[in-house]
């Protein structure tokens, strides 16, 4: 079979492109450690969040050396705690659930973005950088007040974080 | 890009079957390919990996 020289060129370029795409995704997973939103969390009762030890009191907790967890409840129309305060240059795992309808959890301008489904817990782990205030928005239409549904994720210095948490509950 | 297929038809008898040389199309596809590569590098490496709060788990 005769293959035109241009066809061969194009085939080679296509294969190169495929290798490049696979290579990039592999690099992302191995280098910066990019991962998917986990679906491993067991379902919970959305009607009984006030009896759940994680979500009855939405909060940020230290769980390890420079590791924190944030338990967040989304509702019509807001997020709790508000603001969500986490320290800079740390690893933060967000556990987000809803007590009414489907919401979104998007830290504006960042890669932290997940759906929030009642009865399910969305878990995402992120690395924070320097201190900064991020907007937090709901990106799933959830009712009449959807457009005003917002929160804040404040990345603060370690000292400020410690001060806040020793001074009482900020939630 | 100025050449077309008609101009090529008679001048290309050396390589028998390859008298059809759509160099314009090849150039166009090459340009698309370069745009695709640059767009991918920009979207993945700069926009996606460069943003804050990269999801690691
Ligand atoms: Cu909402």
CA distance, first residue to last residue of chain A: 72 Å
- Mean pLDDT score of chain B: 77
Q: How would you sum up the major sheet of chain A? A: 5 strands, mixed
The tally of structural domains of chain A comes to: 2
Which class do the helix and strand fractions of chain B yield? mainly alpha
Series of secondary-structure elements of chain B, N-terminal to C-terminal: HH
Number of extended strands of chain A:
10
> What is the highest CATH level, the class of the largest domain in chain A?
Mainly Beta
Encode the helix/strand succession of chain A as letters. Answer: HEEEEEEEEEEH
Estimated share of beta-strand residues of chain B: under 5%
Do you know the CATH topology of the largest domain in chain A?
Immunoglobulin-like
Mean pLDDT level of chain A: 89
Query: Regions of chain B with pLDDT < 50 over 5+ consecutive residues?
Result: 1-13
Poorly predicted ranges of chain A (pLDDT <50, ≥5 residues)? Answer: none
Task: Write a structural description.
The complex is a heterodimer of chains A (171) and B (57). Chain A is α+β, with helices and mostly antiparallel strands and 171 residues long. Chain A has two domains: 1-34; 46-170, Immunoglobulin-like. Chain A has helices at residues 5-30, 158-166; strands at residues 59-64, 67-75, 78-80, 84-87, 91-98, 103-107, 113-116, 122-127, 132-137, 150-156. Chain B has 57 residues and is mostly helical. Chain B is 58% helix and 0% strand. Chain B contains two helices and no strands. Chain B is rod-shaped and about 55 Å long. Classes of the chains: A alpha+beta (171), B mainly alpha (57). Chains A and B meet through helix 1 and strand 8 of A and helix 2 of B. The structure holds copper (II) ion. Residues 77, 103, 138, 142, 146, 149 of chain A line the site of copper (II) ion.
